[in-house]
């Protein structure tokens, strides 16, 4: 069994299972390092804590900045809507039968959904540094070009290509995180990365309120400046990332050889061999998709995406129904996002501390349901309605990173993890299409249909979480009862990934 009980202290994993024990166990002077909790010996010149801090320093800032920029460029259309976007494109914002704005949102998801798995295959072959940096340059450029669109069709085309370039960012970063950290320490990192959405939502509101004051400058309305300035900043970030963005441990030049071997050994003790040098093929995709647990992972995320994008794209629209000015609408959108960041990190810390995911995925879902239920039923108490926006944002954006981390870290091997993570994000984002048509203009100001749809999908996500927990519990018990020594080679176990008899899923 892989995990903290996988290898007794008297038989260190690094000495007999990794093939790198001599590197890990001794420095150049023969000095021995200390064992970590998985009984893998750390290089003598450092400690596990120090090495994790270095990994955090070299990985987390880059992926957080990348995701913050990507999410900001994706949802800033909601901020732009408050500054004459629709009017300039010839769309009547008061037409109850118009769905052109919703179509503008949904076109993004068409390539975003289709290209997730191919993107992760390219990421594996080209390296995260090159692939994700090129994606960043691409969606930054497209975002800026949205600001000079002269027609509805032009903006529609730009939104399509925004989906093309953004498709690889989210699953690629989750995939990268999973190749550096053990399962018991991954949730804080996943949530910190994912909470960039909350920071982007909060920062986007503040930034839009500031940029909105440029309305009329050089003859441009404020919505154009939102796209141009935010897109240009993202483009420049992508250029810098071409030279600085991190990659897999096997390619990290800032690690010593014994440090690289130790990271490989500790991850193998926790998750099994990852087959980093193995190419991912279309046949692998077919094989991985035959596992019913993979489908459950997609269902969990699919159920969360509908309320998540419903909130991200329409929270400012909902706030406008409370009769705030455009600037006040942007400013009041900040606090729910900020609270979601704090609550999400609190959930992550307790989840890693307890080495448990199931209950920490379920609890925030209940909180989000409560928030949407208040919005559905209360229409005369402005303070309570505003508080409900906090609950919906906190619950939704705290449950999602737990679900993604839980599923991804329960997949072993580069091929199963790259395909499984891309599938979960790609399939899940079909919910984005549903979300964009959930809040229609003719339902204003109460948006009862949108709230009902959000609650329904949260219930679906909760049921999928319970089903996944039951499935992995049953799989663990089945492995416990099976014959342990089945004579499988290391290669065969690597090919099976988390399906091999030695792997145990984290509940």
Automatic annotation (TrEMBL):
PROSITE patterns from the UniProt entry: MFS
GO CC terms in record: plasma membrane
One Pfam family, short name: MFS_1
Transmembrane intervals: 59-79, 99-118, 130-149, 155-178, 190-211, 223-245, 294-314, 334-351, 358-380, 386-407, 419-439, 451-474
Main localization (coarse): membrane
Keywords annotated in UniProt: Membrane, Transmembrane, Transmembrane helix, Transport
Entry annotated with the keyword Cell division: no
Stretches assigned to the Major facilitator superfamily (MFS) profile domain: 59-479
Transmembrane helix listed as a keyword: yes
Location of the protein in the cell: Membrane
GO MF annotations in UniProt: transmembrane transporter activity
Membrane topology qualifier: Multi-pass membrane protein
Name of the protein in its database record: MFS general substrate transporter
Organism (species): Coniochaeta ligniaria NRRL 30616
């Amino acid at each position: 069994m892989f995990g903290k009980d996988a290898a007794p202290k008297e038989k260190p994993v690094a000495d007999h299972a990794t093939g790198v024990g001599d590197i890990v166990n001794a420095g150049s002077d023969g000095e021995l390092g200390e064992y970590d909790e998985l009984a893998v010996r750390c290089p003598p010149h450092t400690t596990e804590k120090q090495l994790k801090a270095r990994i955090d320093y070299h990985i987390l800032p880059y992926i957080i900045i990348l995701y913050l920029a990507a999410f900001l460029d994706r949802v800033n259309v909601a901020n732009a809507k408050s500054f004459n976007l629709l009017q300039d494109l010839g769309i009547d914002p008061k037409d109850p039968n118009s769905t052109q704005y919703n179509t503008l949102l949904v076109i993004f998801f068409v390539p975003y959904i289709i290209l997730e798995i191919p993107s992760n295959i390219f990421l594996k072959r080209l390296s995260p540094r090159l692939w994700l940096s090129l994606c960043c340059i691409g969606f930054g450029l497209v975002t800026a070009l949205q600001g000079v669109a002269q027609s509805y069709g032009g903006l529609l085309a730009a939104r399509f290509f925004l989906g093309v370039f953004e498709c690889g960012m989210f699953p690629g970063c989750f995939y990268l995180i999973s190749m550096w950290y053990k399962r018991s320490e991954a949730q804080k990192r996943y949530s910190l990365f994912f909470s960039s959405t909350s920071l982007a939502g909060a920062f986007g509101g503040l930034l839009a309120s500031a940029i909105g004051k440029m309305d009329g400058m050089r003859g441009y309305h404020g919505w154009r400046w939102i796209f141009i300035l935010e897109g240009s900043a993202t483009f420049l970030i992508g250029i810098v990332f071409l030279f600085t963005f991190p990659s897999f441990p096997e390619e990290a030049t800032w690690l010593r050889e014994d440090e690289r071997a130790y990271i490989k050994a500790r991850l193998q003790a926790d998750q099994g061999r990852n087959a980093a040098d193995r190419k991912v093929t279309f046949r692998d995709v077919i094989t991985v998709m035959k596992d019913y647990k993979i489908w459950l992972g997609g269902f969990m995320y699919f159920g969360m995406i509908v309320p998540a994008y419903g909130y991200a794209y329409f929270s400012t629209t909902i706030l406008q129904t409370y009769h705030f000015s455009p600037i006040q609408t942007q400013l009041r959108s900040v606090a729910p996002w900020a609270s979601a960041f704090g609550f999400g990190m609190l959930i992550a810390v307790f989840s890693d501390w307890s080495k448990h995911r199931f209950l920490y995925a379920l609890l925030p879902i209940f909180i989000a349901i409560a928030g949407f239920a208040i919005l559905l039923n209360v229409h005369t108490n402005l303070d309570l309605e505003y508080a409900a926006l906090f609950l919906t944002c906190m619950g939704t954006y705290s449950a999602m990173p737990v679900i993604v981390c839980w599923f991804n870290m329960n997949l072993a091997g580069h091929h199963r993890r790259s395909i499984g993570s891309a599938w979960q994000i790609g399939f899940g984002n079909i919910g984005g299409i549903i979300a964009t048509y959930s809040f229609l203009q003719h339902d204003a100001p109460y948006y009862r249909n949108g709230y009902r749809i959000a609650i329904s999908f949260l219930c679906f996500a909760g049921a999928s979480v319970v089903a996944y927990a039951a499935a992995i519990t049953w799989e663990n018990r089945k492995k416990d009862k099976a014959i342990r020594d089945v004579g499988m080679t290391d290669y065969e176990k690597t090919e099976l990934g988390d399906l091999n008899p030695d792997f145990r899923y984290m509940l």
